[in-house]
Amino acid sequence: MGENVLAVTDETFDAEVLKSDLPALVDFWASWCGPCRAIGPVVEELAEEYAGKVKVAKLNVDESPKTPGQYGIRAIPTLIMFKNGEVVDQITGAVSKSHIESALQKIV
Amino acid sequence: MEARELVIVGGGPAGMTAGLYAARARLDVVMIERLSPGGQMLTTDMVENWPGDLEPVNGFELAERMRKHALKFGLEITGNEVGGISVDGGHKVVHTPKGDIRCKALILCPGASPRKLGVPGETELTGKGVSYCGTCDGPFFRDQVVACIGGGDTAAEEALFLTKFAPKVYLVHRRDQLRATAILAERIMQNDKIEVLWSQVPLAFLGKNGVESVRLRKLKDNTEYDLAVQGAFVFVGTLPNTLFLNGVVEMDQQGFIIADKNQETSVPGVFAAGDCCSKLLRQIVTAAGEGATAAFAAQRYLED
């Protein structure tokens, strides 16, 4: 995981994402999910480009099943854009960088 | 502007094989991939028909091996997204957000994506029970009843895969026999957890916060009913990822690229390989074969 990407868990989600001063992008993923691994480099690139503007985090749905359950996630990869603790946008599936960027524009 | 002899657009099995052959031919080549290399192999649980691999190989692992194989011979792979191409006489220009790349020859391997059914509720419930990838989303449906839509190889493979998690899998097929390869069809018929709903088509996905049922029509007597399921997996073919080409090369009515037996398109020096091509069979092995042909033909084109 890149240095600009933060690993969050069920325990740290509230403090790191919902109460974050910065808007946040959370990538819900699992190690057995090919497309999740495929968008990994794109998420890391975005984390670098948006450093200081958006907190980019990854949550492993196997290790932290509670949070994805709360958000009704039944497909991965799912990317959720949060601002002030609220869901602003959600993307399901391995999509292109430009697609994610247009969603990021809604929270920066 | 960056200039190359050859640019390969897309990193599935076609692109990676083209890259392997081009790198071994010592061409000045770069392969552009918008995600990690692998294409639809990344969403394939088990590949059983890759010659030489007697044991089923995981699609993700096969993708990784192909990537390492191409890298071993010096292929340069870059993460970028091609927004379009243009042709200027003998030169081709590949447009990307990180700048244009000029090249003499081009191999297009953008692949294909799952086709949507286009019924009400599908878009709204995608990610909330409607899925196009069993290997990604199957584990979310542990102990839940799901439907699988389609009758081809992918639908059959995914229905079998989903029985690892779901106690009951309905396979909904519009015909009265499966199109899937015989060995897969046999496994479907022998699996106690799978029930095939013959000659039925989905009309809508229903549910508030997640899929609760799928509305089906029986084609034999035109009656409709709602089948209670918590997940619906759609495998009804693919659509080519060729919109970005904006008609620069000739395509068929569905947007698949028309290439000749040397994989050359209607534009000299522009080749195509893999699932994006208009053809009979879309498999990893055919994509790889076409990638090799395209690279060899591109090399010939560059020498002339």
Number of helices of chain B: 7
Low-confidence stretches of chain B: none
CATH architecture of chain A: 3-Layer(aba) Sandwich
Q: What's the CATH first level of the largest domain in chain B?
A: Alpha Beta
CATH homologous superfamily identity of chain A: Glutaredoxin
Number of domains of chain B: 2
The name of the CATH topology of chain A is: Glutaredoxin
Largest interface: A-B, 27 and 30 residues
In CATH, what is the homologous superfamily of the largest domain in chain B?
FAD/NAD(P)-binding domain
The number of strands of chain B is: 19
Number of domains of chain A: 1
Q: Report the end-to-end length of chain A measured between terminal Cα atoms.
A: 23 Å
Shape of chain B: elongated
Helix content of chain A: 25-40%
**Helix/strand order of chain A, N-terminal first:** EHEHEHEEH
Strand content of chain A: 25-35%
Largest sheet of chain A: 5 strands, mixed
What is the strand and helix layout of this fold?
The complex is a heterodimer of chains A (108) and B (304).
Chain A (H helix, E strand, L loop, with lengths): L4 E4 L4 H6 L5 E6 L4 H16 L5 E6 L5 H5 L7 E6 L2 E7 L4 H8 L4
Parallel strand pairs in A: 1-3, 2-3
Antiparallel strand pairs in A: 2-4, 4-5
Chain B lengths: L1 E8 L3 H12 L4 E5 L12 E2 L9 E2 H14 L3 E4 L4 E5 L2 E6 L2 E10 L3 E3 L7 H4 L4 E2 L2 H4 L7 E5 L3 H10 L5 E5 L9 H9 L3 E4 L2 E7 L6 E6 L4 E6 L2 E4 L3 E3 L29 E3 L11 H20 L1
Parallel strand pairs in B: 1-2, 1-8, 2-5, 8-19, 10-17, 11-12, 11-17, 12-13
Antiparallel strand pairs in B: 3-4, 6-7, 7-8, 9-18, 14-15, 15-16
